[in-house]
Amino acid sequence: QIIQANPALEAFGNAKTLRNDNSSRFGKFIRIHFGTSGKLASADIETYLLEKSRVTFQLKAERNYHIFFQILSNAKPELLDMLLITNNPYDYSYISQGEVTVASINDSEELLATDNAFDVLGFTPDEK
Q: What CATH number did the domain enclosing 91 receive?
């Protein structure tokens, strides 16, 4: 489950930058707890320093957070219906200032990985 948290964290906290197509735009601290027998008992993740300005502004060769493009990928059309949005990124100025596609990233596949991560982590459909 600890490893499976990564696709969800990356979807909401990573974006394309000039130097890296999957650049982390936040910090994370993972605390792992072991039981008296030495076996993994639990873990918690603290996030900090999210680059909030990226939500409203991106340079031409950069991109907003991956989650926006994953949702618009149409891999789960019911999301578009539920959110009352189109799958055209150019309909939304906050995400179309920079790149809208990245050759090394398949947003449809990544949305399915993000959705699966939420399932593994125990999120209910309403929480997702």
A: 1.10.10.820
| Domain presence at residue 111 | yes
- Alpha-carbon distance 128 to 119, whole Å? 9
Query: Over the stretch 18-34, which tens digit does the pLDDT of each residue have?
Result: 999 999 999 999 999 99
Give a yes or no: residue 125 inside a domain: no
Model pTM greater than 0.85?
yes
Q: Give the separation between CA 4 and CA 122, rounded to whole angstroms.
A: 11
CA distances for 121 relative to 14, 80, 98, 117, 125, angstroms: 19, 23, 32, 6, 12
Number of domains in the chain: 1
